[in-house]
Automatic annotation (TrEMBL):
Pfam family, one: HPPK
Keywords of this entry: ATP-binding, Folate biosynthesis, Kinase, Nucleotide-binding, Transferase
Name this protein carries in UniProt: 2-amino-4-hydroxy-6-hydroxymethyldihydropteridine pyrophosphokinase
Pathway: Cofactor biosynthesis; tetrahydrofolate biosynthesis; 2-amino-4-hydroxy-6-hydroxymethyl-7,8-dihydropteridine diphosphate from 7,8-dihydroneopterin triphosphate: step 4/4
EC number(s) per entry: 2.7.6.3
Gene Ontology molecular functions: 2-amino-4-hydroxy-6-hydroxymethyldihydropteridine diphosphokinase activity; ATP binding; kinase activity
Domain 7,8-dihydro-6-hydroxymethylpterin-pyrophosphokinase residues, every copy: 5-120
């Protein structure tokens, strides 16, 4: 199965994005990452900029197992549910799609995700 994920952070961005990439490479050898893109916050009042990135990898694991692994990486970065109200996102890794199944169809329309997917499809990453 081919998975597409998005990775984002607005708190200690450099460190948390690097942590995510290291852990994802360990879990999914052959993973490809788009270039990291800085964006303004969407639907947040906190002015902290976001770092965003898209990645694609193959795995025989089922989507539920993939989600558990992604959430474990978020927790390793120190993500706490109560911080979401404060608009602190240490690390957010979302499962966008698996093969032809879209899990976050609205997110797939976001500019930085579209750009990332174009990079991954064209090999420009």
């Amino acid at each position: 199965m081919v998975y597409t994920i998005s990775i984002g952070s607005n708190e200690q961005r450099k460190e948390n994005m690097a942590l995510a990439r290291r852990r994802l490479i360990e879990l999914f050898p052959g993973i490809c990452f788009s270039k990291e893109e800085e964006t303004s916050p969407l639907l947040f009042h906190r002015p902290a900029l976001f770092s965003n990135q898209v990645a694609r990898f193959s795995s025989e694991q089922q989507p539920a197992e993939i989600l558990l692994r992604l959430k474990a990486i978020e927790r390793e970065a120190g993500r706490k549910p109560e911080e979401k109200k404060l608009e602190i996102i240490r690390l957010d890794i979302d499962l966008l799609s698996c093969d032809d199944t879209a899990y976050k169809p609205e997110d797939l329309k976001r500019d930085y995700i579209v750009h990332g997917l174009e990079q991954l499809s064209s090999g420009r990453y």
